[in-house]
Specification:
The structure is a homodimer. By secondary structure, the first copy, chain A, is mainly alpha-helical. Chain A has 9 helices and no strands. Chain A is elongated, with a radius of gyration of 25 Å.
């Protein structure tokens, strides 16, 4: 079948892509997050269409379109969000430098306010402010982190992260779709896709929780629950819609 | 046409939903973010399928399935992420209380370390530690915020936010799809959908940037760029795929 050829070229492409992103340091966390997310919506979309159309080709075409759209929205979105975050940090940094330069007394009051919240008395507040204001750079660093809660974003990391999540989303999304390449009807495809995806959702949910520091078993069940609920709802709604269209 | 009836019932449903979520305080930011995101992938998916299938009904069914799947993944995902975040905060809080109780000297060193980074001398560090450790609750609050960078998550807000983003995603997603209800062929649908969606992407991108404090015109162009790129890529890939399937 021609499907098999397409699938194997796709997998080769992805295999090569993995080498391509390796030198720019793909983060394990991003791979797991991208794959776990990639499984969810393409699986649910394919499941939804399986209840409504008669041809695997349509399910596959829609699934591929979703994977392309989703990975670009995620990858490009992440890249642009990273740039926005850096611009925001830079403009706040400039503003703090200006304020420390032009209205130091107001900035000193802001430092004292932070410490008064924790029961530090006025005398000590004044000592802290005096020492902190000796070094303008450290003072601004302090204000950025403790007044504004901002840390300098690592833009290269953010872009890498976006690219890795995007590519992992593609790999994750091809797992539920692969079932439709090897079966004859959407119904058969759905059965195998559901079996395959539930196992993968559980495994990726497990590792996703492990790398993000959550209880892994509970996390695995959460990720599986989201995927299954989304797929069941998409199936029912698409079936209902299709019967009236 | 029956499409029009379906669309008007859907819009009535959403209109009523809006009242339903109003009492639980829907945040304007969440509405704008959900709608801006909702426009992107459903638009791109519908565009992708328009290049590959001959029937508006298939485009609509796939679009509806994606909107259902995407909004549930987003809403339920946001809800569960909110709960996870709260559990994480609570377990870190308990750990800090235990540490302050059982290894206060080590915790005092950690406080001093924070201040030494900003050029505060040892004498002052000791004064701060002495005052801070007078009140255990304030000490723990300080460690949570300044050592761990954690703030108590507002779970109700997180859940509300997830629900609002999910529902707004549905409303946003129906905008590009609506064009396929009123046209005869996917190609006509695509033209009107693209026109309608580009205008909406720009508008929602503008308001999204405004409510998140970014330069609105630049933000509007970014959101539009993501949507158009995703749609163009989905269109080309789905067309290429469909020609070999």
């Amino acid at each position: 079948m021609i499907y098999k050829n397409i699938l194997s070229s796709l997998l080769s492409f992805l295999f090569i892509s993995t080498f391509f992103i390796q030198p720019v340091q793909a983060n394990k966390t991003d791979i797991v997050i991208g794959m776990a997310d990639g499984l969810t919506v393409p699986f649910a979309l394919a499941a939804g269409l399986s209840g409504a159309v008669q041809s695997n080709a349509i399910v596959i075409t829609a699934g591929i379109a979703e994977i392309v759209a989703g990975s670009i929205a995620m990858g490009l979105g992440g890249y642009l969000a990273g740039k926005t975050e850096q611009e925001h940090f830079q403009s706040e940094l400039n503003r703090e430098y200006e304020e420390v330069e032009n209205i130091p007394e107001k900035e000193k009051e802001e430092v004292k306010l932070i410490f008064s919240q924790y029961g530090i008395n006025e005398r000590t507040q004044n000592i802290i402010v005096d020492e902190l204001s000796n070094d303008k750079h450290k003072w601004v660093d302090f204000m950025m982190k403790y007044e504004l809660g901002l840390e300098e974003p690592d833009v290269n990391r953010a872009m890498n992260s976006a690219a890795t999540i995007g590519i992992s989303y593609i790999v994750g999304g091809l797992i539920p779709l692969s079932a439709y390449f090897f079966t004859r009807t959407p119904f058969q495809g759905l059965l195998i896709s559901a079996l395959l995806t539930v196992i993968c959702l559980f495994l990726f949910g497990y590792f996703k929780s492990k790398v993000t520091g959550q209880p892994p078993l509970k996390g695995a069940m959460k990720v599986t629950l989201i995927g299954v609920t989304a797929a069941a709802a998409a199936f029912l709604v698409a079936k209902a819609f299709n019967s009236v269209l």
